[in-house]
Input
Amino acid sequence: MTAFAKRNLKLYIRDKSTVLFSLLAVFIVIALYVLFLGDVYKGELKEFERADELMDNWVMAGVLAITSMTTTLGMLGTMVRDKYEHIEKDFFVAPVKRWQIAGGYMISAYGVGVIMTWIAFVVAEIYIVVNGGKMISLHNTLKVLGISMVSSLMNTAIALFLVSLFRSMNAFATANTIIGTLIGFLTGIYLPIGSYPAGVQWLVKLFPVSHAALVFRNVMMESVMDVSFAKVPSEIVQEIKEELGMVYLFGSWEVSASCSMGIMTIIAIVFFTLACVQISRKKK
Amino acid sequence: MVYIEHTKGERYMEKIIEVNHLSKSYGDVWAVKDVSFNVEQGMLFAFLGPNGAGKSTTINSICTFLKPDKGKVLVNGYKLGEQDGKIRDSIGVVFQESVLDRLLTVEENLSLRGSFYNLRGKELKEAVANAAAATEIGNLLKRPYGKLSGGQRRRADIARALLHTPKILFLDEPTTGLDPQTRKNVWDTIKKLQREQGMTVFLTTHYMEEAEEADYCVVVDNGMVAAKGTPFELKEQYAKDKLSLKGKNMEQLKTMLEEKNIVYTKKADLLEIELKNTMDAMAILKEAEPVLDGFTVVKGSMDDVFLGITGKEIRE
Output
């Protein structure tokens, strides 16, 4: 199983275009932010101290949330190809079990998700510091690394389930493009959730990856928020938090960071189960 | 290998594959219907049939990919459907399409696939080296599979199938799409494996001259066994020798043949006569000698056998 996982990793890394494309959504988010949107948001918050640093952290938190989604999806393209090009026939002609193969895909996808998120984190911190912001504390660094492992688990599970539905490369590539395009909106990264109409806000709140974004935001923006909002009344801080997607309200029920962690874990379990059912269904 | 008895083409050697009344349907269509045959140990076995005849279905069933609807199959003494794991340990399969990873080197490919057979560490290294030696690709091990030529790839595919030293090697059209020289090389490798390692080789092929070299052939058509036997037996039964005559005066020759009630067909500037026995040609030639300009006797080939049995050209 580990040998097979290693193979998947090698195939992913050696195909430079797959790596690049799986990071496309991430690049688009960053480019849009750096070139256009960043200034708009910073302008809106300019009465607060260190608004630049606040929004830099905000957008990078979103980037960390989606990185593991798009990269695991790209990595699992191998799984669709193995099926489509009948390469998997050569696996099952050997006395290996189906779950071992499925496990190999999972491990490699999870590995890619976590490592790419960590790399994105390093790049994000460099960007923030170069832009005049303060580097994240050690305590919160550890938190981010830990959250990456949970969010990657959820994203791997979702990606695995999605991928198990596809049998053709074309369908998969199309789905991949659509997900890559929509994910920035659905997680409230291109635009803060507060600027959406109420109906769409619900969609964002229900989209699992948004919860990863919420948790990352709370950790990464923690210290700068203390400074920015030191003299701001707490009702307004609460309002801003809602605007930026740092708390989600379902009616009067407020989803906090720890709540979102729980939600991610549950979603990971649900989608892993679905994916396992889908994969182990052998054709007659 | 000892022949215990040899009468009328019936040989009794150890059977390594036994297929009894195998049937498989897709919906209302029977892909394979009541197919039975045996493969004896150490033989080069050719499985022939036109496209859609049920070749792939049969092979996929024997190789544990498909669950047959009916029938009993024993591979290396293991029962299909009950001991599939043991069967997979006993067989190596070379698929029609490439199944190795293009971005990995041949060695990486072989090591990975070897690990599927629980080969580890030193054992795995040895298995890779042996398989590479048997197929003469030792110098290609460090090259990416995707950068190899068609013939080199085929060799790597065969090496993959040999990793766990299987008892039976299945090859699904191993030489299709290769140029004649490469085809011969690949074919030589296959025959060498059979000869030197006593491996049982089960292959399907489009090339009838390859089928000629098999020890035993089974021809399937419409999902059923249409004929079986050694290439010699099949040719005896289904392919007739042909005598082609060219006359000094074609009209005279025709009249002469018609007088003798010999049936002929005109092909270009030749008259072609089907012979029951090769020696029958002598009598006709003697009669026709005065008006004859030239002649050829063509021995029936496996192509003719195939045509005779299925009524179809194999290269469709």
Notes: Chain B touches chain A through 27 residues (CB under 8 Å). Chain B has eleven helices and 16 strands.
